[in-house]
Amino acid sequence: MKIVIALLVLVLAGCAGAEPRSPAPRSSATTASSASPVPSGPKMPEVVQMRLTEARELLRAQGYRVTEEDETGQNRQILEPLNWVVASQLPEAGAEAPSGTQVVLKVRKPTDSSTSGEPRAKGAVPNVVCLDLQKAQDTLQAAGFYLLGSEDATGQRRQQLVDRNWVVVSQSEPPGSTPDPKTKITLGAVKFGESTGTSGCKS
């Protein structure tokens, strides 16, 4: 009888000292997989306000196909990309865009935002500073001045072979003046992308 009592005491003591089992930890692989974000695709880079030359290079290096349109609606041909700046892009910056996506860039010349060249009375010299050289000449001729010349405002004496590639930064006759129509008006110009000095023109 004593042996049976001793055995009961030992069994009860073992049950009282047993600690409750904690639940099994979750698999680390399961935890990691539930916390991992879903990977996203390549993002379209921001090219607005870039020179068209730089925007083309960046986009093509990432495998995108590029087309350009004249943002002003004039359907001008884009012969020299350095003369153009990106005004908007589609897809927009930050959008998911896999390699091979067609990107449409709407571009304009820095001189397109100029307020110069506003019409004046016939015989009065218009302000043509900040226009491209071709538009400046057209504006002066419309005002009745046909004896026109141009020069390299940097002092390098380069010839202005393609007038649309140059920005007017000075004019020999001040805006609003009324010289004899036979007076020669000389326009100082620099190439797009070059410093425009104190003229404040965009280039």
Give an overview of the whole structure.
The chain has helices spanning 2-17, 28-35, 52-61, 133-142; strands at residues 65-70, 85-90, 102-108, 148-152, 166-171, 185-191. It has 203 residues and is an alpha/beta fold. Among the domains are: 52-108, Trypsin Inhibitor V, Chain A (2-Layer Sandwich); 112-193, Trypsin Inhibitor V, Chain A (2-Layer Sandwich). A 3-stranded mixed beta sheet has the order 1-3-2, covered by helices on one side. The model is unreliable at 29-33 (pLDDT under 50).
Blueprint (SSEs and pairs):
Layout: H1 2-17, H2 28-35, H3 52-61, E1 65-70, E2 85-90, E3 102-108, H4 133-142, E4 148-152, E5 166-171, E6 185-191
Parallel strand pairs: 1-3, 4-6
Antiparallel strand pairs: 2-3, 5-6
Distance between the termini: 111 Å
Q: Strand pairing plus helix content: what structural class?
A: alpha/beta
Q: Please, what is the average pLDDT? A: 85
What is the CATH topology assignment of the domain at 112-193? Trypsin Inhibitor V, Chain A
Number of strands: 6
Q: Provide the succession of SSEs.
A: HHHEEEHEEE
Features:
203 residues, alpha/beta, Trypsin Inhibitor V, Chain A, three-stranded mixed sheet, 6 strands, 22% helix
Q: What can be said about this structure in brief?
A:
The protein is α/β, with parallel strands linked by helices and 203 residues long.
